[in-house]
Amino acid sequence: MRVLLLATTTGYQTRAFGEAAERLGVDLVFATDRCDMLEDPWQDRALPIRFYDEAASVAAILAAAREAPIDAVVAVGDRPTVIAAMVREALGLPGHPPAAAAAARNKRVARERFKAAGLPTPRFVEGTSTSEASHFAPLGFPMVIKPVALSGSRGVMRVDNDAELSDGLARVRSLMSSPDIRAERNDAHGSVLAEQFIEGREFALEGIMNQGILDVLAIFDKPDPLDGPLFEETIYVTPSNAPPTTQSAIVRAIATASRALGLSHGPIHAECRVNSRGVFVLEVAGRPIGGLCARALRFARQGAAAEPHALVRGNLIPISAIGHEISFEELLIRHALGEESNAWRREWCASGVMMIPIPRRGILRGVTGIDEARVVPAIEDVRITAKPDQLLIPLPEGASYLGFIFARADRALDVDIALRTAHARLNFNIAPEVRVLQSIHG
Questions:
Q1: 192, 242, 249, 274: most buried, per Cβ within 10 A?
Q2: pTM
Q3: CA separation, residue 360 to residues 51, 321, 402, 432 (Å)
Q4: Contact 346, 289 (CB under 8 A)
Q5: pLDDT by residue (tens digit) across 137-174?
Q6: By 3-state DSSP, what share of the chain in percent is helix, strand and coil, each rounded to 5?
Q7: pLDDT digits (tens, 9 = 90+) for 96-120
Q8: Beta strand ranges found along 177-258 (DSSP E)
Q9: Which CATH architecture has domain 2-103?
Q10: What 3-state DSSP class applies to 187?
């Protein structure tokens, strides 16, 4: 069996897919966003495509599939989801339809679909990155402004008055003119959405659609308040401590939102806010959780997930054998190849991840305290993914984290405490950025 994985680059998450494919005896083939003039620069034999040219990318993949058939297609990250859907459709493989994948990537389209489906929806106004503040001001404060086609919290800001709105729009304009955004050649990057701020607790849901039916894999609490002015996510912990009635309402709302977008078969990652007025679905992406966060999820065969675990060197291990558990990446490959996801349930213990935030802009010179953080009870690993001498750019302009901390314990509260304790032991040496000024004499 051959599985095609579409990803921005071959990094940590693609290696996890490679390990899962090897366990399954599956041949994993990569298609990544890179120049086709270079001769396999990463030595991964990946098919070079360009995400901004969807038609040409699909044609290149289908040409390769005629030489060596493809049995399943998986995409990670938002940008390749439409290409993956078009390839699956052309090959007659199950998956989210291309139109649904495209709708999920556009925040304005998603808002319209959610409203039409009867879901609680904040008032919103669409404009462009060059629109004057007066275009959005009638919406009233507080409001949240966001680019319609960027993922995560990039470019997302809460503004509480006219001055903050003007400053926020200026930051969005600057962000949208940055080289990495312009390189995507996405016409939607010219659009900005403003919507009423939604108060309440925020949650994330990881799930898989099986022919239109939502199979919930995990509901994550986001224990830190996300009230702005920026919305940098840090800690995800599961299982949720929300009341069962709240969790059921979250599942119903996200299932409705997924169907409203047309997402029908494959992974989804959803975000929502809950308050006294109901569940407000922020977004439903037609792809799995990003980056290394997937390491916070493990699965066991249905009926085996509740077996007791033993604490071994700070880690909870199933007493029978760790071999009964699989990674999220393996579950995604299995599902793409036709296995029903509901044959698997999330592991018995609580788990969580901290996405280590970037405290300030500057050059990373080094990180200390990693070994001290790793010995905190319930901590499984600390991974620093930022590289020495890398320019660190915090949100809302940035698009990455310093790294990730993973924990597992009997209780979700203990996971939360462990993540915060480990993070407090890390020290980041960030030097000021040296800006080079050029003068032209003539």
A1: 192
A2: 0.90
A3: 31, 43, 11, 9
A4: no
A5: 999 999 999 999 988 789 999 999 999 999 999 999 99
A6: 30, 30, 40
A7: 999 999 999 999 999 999 999 999 9
A8: 191-196, 201-210, 213-221, 235-238
A9: 3-Layer(aba) Sandwich (3.40)
A10: helix
Q: Please, is 92 exposed, middle or buried when counting C-beta atoms within 10 Å of its C-beta (0-12, 13-18, 19+)?
A: exposed
| Architecture of the domain whose range is 201-285 | 2-Layer Sandwich (3.30)
437: DSSP letter: P
Structure tokens at 99: 């139109």
- Distance CA(274)–CA(201), nearest Å, equals 5
CATH number among 3.40.640.10, 3.30.565.10, 3.30.1490.20, 3.10.50.40, domain 123-196: 3.30.1490.20
Q: Write out the two tokens for 66.
A: 């005629």
Residue pair 24/333 in contact by the 8 Å Cβ criterion? yes
Closest C-alpha among 395, 385, 324, 397 to residue 353: 385
User: DSSP code of 230?
Assistant: B
CB 419 within 8 A of CB 407: yes
Residue 313 Rama label (left phi>0; alpha psi -120 to 50; beta): left
Residue written as token pair 């990537």: 105
